[in-house]
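I had to read the description of the data format several times before I understood it. The format is easy to grasp once an entry is in front of the reader. For illustration, here is how one protein appears when written out as sequence plus structure tokens:
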Amino acid sequence: MKNRQLTDTAQALVCGGRGLLAMDESNGTCNKRFAAAGITQTEPFRRAYRELLATTPNLSTCISGAILYDETIRQRTAEGVPFATLLTEAGIIPGIKVDIGAKEMAGHPSEAITGGLDGLRERLADYWSMGARFAKWRAVIALDDRLPTAACIAANAEALAGYAALCQEAGLVPIVEPEVLMAGDHDLERCRLVTETVLHTVFDALYEQGVMLEGLILKPNMILPGLACPIQPAADVIAEATVTSLLRVVPAAVAGIAFLSGGQSGELASERLNAMNIKAKASGSRIPWPLVFSFARAIQRPALEIWKGQAVNTAHAQQALYHRARCNHAALRGEYSAALEAA
């Protein structure tokens, strides 16, 4: 019965032409973004902003699930409704970020290992009781001409697999996020080679832990050159490289692939996602998983810049949020365009 529930939840998150809204920024990250926008960095303002996101009209037409942070899942709307309840009633599945962030890896300068396994079984039980039905864990893989090391890849893969097994034990669908970072001047080919190595290692670890792939969602980076690379290929080139790599290393049994935005602009992320889904349509049944999104800044940024912590701007900010969600919703059908962006 639990396996069926996991599979059903995973399918609900990635099917039907919708994607995920990542609103799981830690308090520190949220405060940094608030500071840049001139917004007061306190819990009441974080709560108000999260209510703005969660109460955006018609959001469920484009968004299947929302990833929350520990503070957020414990918060309520101004009317006293828990955010998880609000989202569920709106037709959006609540999820929860459960890692505690990346820490410096001992003996490996410039590399990081994600923590949070200690006490995770108990925390997952609490999150389930609060209404969460899926979870997320992010591993951070730095990339340059000598990194990542095999040790860093292996350590993060083992942590991801341990987390995923605990999630499924608790009845939560694990989103597995091994992010190869965009920072640097590496080219597309270097990103491809490293990403394929990382994913190979992650799926080996998942297999060893007995994780059921039908009840799991992969949240990978797109195959992209570094931000400082002088050659930035067109969207169709990135789509070809990304889909080809995934076909090489991701088992067909995985429920779906929800791309992270990784610091891309909203427009670029939508354009590249659109190119991938055009390719998927053209290939017929060759691509076995839905290709959706799990974006944070690439959806949220315009809304935050409009809101500025002022209630009078809420409706306008929600319109901007819904517009970005609609653009990505169109990209899942291969129908994103400059005309839609300007609408």
User: Anything to note?
Assistant: The domain at 2-342 is CATH 3.20.20.70 (TIM Barrel). The chain has one domain: 2-342. The chain has a mean pLDDT of 97.
